[in-house]
């Protein structure tokens, strides 16, 4: 299982950063690879369906998000075509007019029959080692652009 954590300082107040994170429907506008994002249910846990294009594979999955305004958003996989596990969180800490954002994600890709392990490993690497830094930059750029 791949667990990756990273931290970034965003030149925006915590409320703005939080608002960007929980505006799931707008993810296709700025998050690399997200081709569709739709909130299925609100309430105490928002279920959100994502469509992700990694170039080598396009797939859908549903995450359940728990929100604790303005400091934390966690998620867990509810269903998905390719993933067995997708858990993670955003933890936000104010630093004056800036925000320190800690992002953590744990992913386990399922191996369908007849699919070589090398393909599964490549998808896992794409999700954790390539997408994560790009996604952090995308959220940082989005929050900083909304002045």
Automatic annotation (TrEMBL):
This is Cyclase/dehydrase. It comes from Anaeromyxobacter dehalogenans (strain ATCC BAA-258 / DSM 21875 / 2CP-1). InterPro entries: Polyketide_cyclase/dehydratase (IPR019587), START-like_dom_sf (IPR023393).
